[in-house]
Design a protein that fits this description.
Layout (H helix, E strand, L loop, with lengths): L7 E4 L6 H10 L20 H5 L4 E7 L3 H5 L1 H11 L10 E6 L1
Parallel strand pairs: 1-2, 2-3
Length: about 100
């Protein structure tokens, strides 16, 4: 049987819980202490094209307790659509994910 690899990216504003979400479902671990990661830092926005590259699907995450993070989801989706498409040129499929 041939193994198939899918790249699913998680995007959204800083502190919405992207890293915690991935850690929980990939490694079955959860840390309550917050540590900012490279994906959430504004100064690394120029690197998003590299992060998005070859994505098959996307989770756009927001924090239910921070209204502004929900409003930012449109910005994140537009950024993804401008920088990345599937091989056939269609948009990367996305799910909107509420957290916390």
């Amino acid at each position: 049987m041939t193994e198939v690899l899918f790249k699913v990216i998680v995007i959204g504003d800083p502190t919405v819980g992207k890293t915690s979400f991935v850690q929980k479902y990939v490694n079955d671990s959860f840390r309550r202490d917050y540590k900012m990661t490279i994906g959430g830092q504004e100064r690394f926005t120029s690197m998003t094209r590299v992060y998005y590259k070859d994505a098959h699907a996307c989770l756009v995450m927001f924090d239910l307790t921070q209204k502004n993070t929900f409003q930012s989801c449109v910005k994140w989706k537009k950024d993804l659509d401008q920088k990345c498409t599937l091989v056939d040129g269609s948009p990367v499929p996305c799910l909107l994910l509420a957290n916390k």
